[in-house]
Amino acid sequence: MSFDVDVRKRLGGHLIEARFVAPAGLTLLSGPSGAGKTSVLNMMAGLLRPDEGHVTIAGDMLFDAAKAIDRPAYRRRLGYVFQDGRLFPHLRVRANLLYGYRLALPEDRWMSLEEVVVFLGIEHLLIRWPHSLSGGEAQRVAIGRALLSGARALLMDEPLASIDPARRNEIIDVILRIRDELGLPIVYVTHNPAEADRLATHRVEISPSFL
Ligand SMILES: Nc1ncnc2c1ncn2[C@@H]1O[C@H](COP(=O)(O)OP(=O)(O)OP(=O)(O)O)[C@@H](O)[C@H]1O
Fold first, then answer.
1. Where is the ABC transporter domain (predicted)?
2. What residues contact residue 7 under an 8 Å CB cut-off, 6+ apart?
3. What ranges do the domains of the chain cover?
4. Which of 9, 14, 163, 204 could form a cystine bridge with 135, CB 3.0-4.6 A?
5. Does position 12 have pLDDT exceeding 90, yes or no?
């Protein structure tokens, strides 16, 4: 399973462009602040519409400007993990985890709630409210929610940035297990070189360009 990305988008005074293949493993998007890394993830996820190009995963066309194909985000089967978790504050952890699971087609679900809970070690958190979780706990739940949505790949935008540095290794271990045990392709953004060195199997440079 691999991504094939070739996108261009004019945004403000910038031209954001990226062309790469992201195979199984963890592909790091690097580049200076403002180069367009988050925008590229958003174009892959279906949250930002490219002006030109295409996005496919395992040969499945998610976006193709020339053919007017633009699959909505909720039908792309990609899990998106943000810097701040973005859990639903009015739902307990269990309901947060099951949110995407209930929306996924039965044939697209490949992990059960029990499997995800064991994989991430979050059984003790199930009845908690998001506001009571530490940064690392919230991020585990956000990853669990992404896995349960039937995701066939993960997009992660600085997922460790709001976690206490002393707890970051625990989440890095979780991401390594997703990469190696579950074999899910991951496209990842971080500014932290040590984190990148531990996680990345492939690297793609996103270069800034101005109109
Ligand atoms: N909605 C928007 N309207 C206009 N310009 C935008 C918009 N969203 C982003 N941009 C600009 O597009 C460029 C790329 O932004 P993006 O957040 O993708 O970069 P990035 O590489 O992820 O940056 P960082 O590393 O700082 O998070 C930036 O210059 C940003 O100001």
1. 2-211
2. 16, 17, 18, 19, 40, 43, 44, 50, 52, 53, 54, 55, 63
3. 3-205
4. 163
5. no
Distance from residue 162's CA to the centre of ligand 1 (Å): 19
Per-residue burial over 48-62, b = 16 or more CB atoms within 10 Å of its CB, e = otherwise: bebeebbbbbeeeeb
Average pLDDT over residues 155-171: 89
Q: For the domain 3-205, what is the CATH code?
A: 3.40.50.300
Quick check: 17 pLDDT over 70?
Answer: yes
Instruction: Choose the most confident range, by mean pLDDT, from 20-24, 49-53, 169-173.
Output: 49-53
Ligand 1 atom 30 nearest Cα? 34
pLDDT per residue as tens digits for the range 45-54: 999 999 999 9
The pTM of this model reads 0.92
Q: Is 121 a pocket residue for ligand 1 (Cβ < 6 Å)?
A: no
**22 C-alpha to ligand 1 centroid (Å):** 22
CB 148 within 8 A of CB 182: no
Residue nearest (by alpha carbon) to ligand 1 atom 8: 11
- Ligand 1 lined by 83 (C-beta under 6 Å): no
Ligand 1 atom closest to 42 (CA)? 18
Asked if 26 contacts 71 with a C-beta cutoff of 8 angstroms, the reply is no
Nearest CA to ligand 1 atom 28: 34
Centre of ligand 1 from the C-alpha of residue 89, in Å:
27
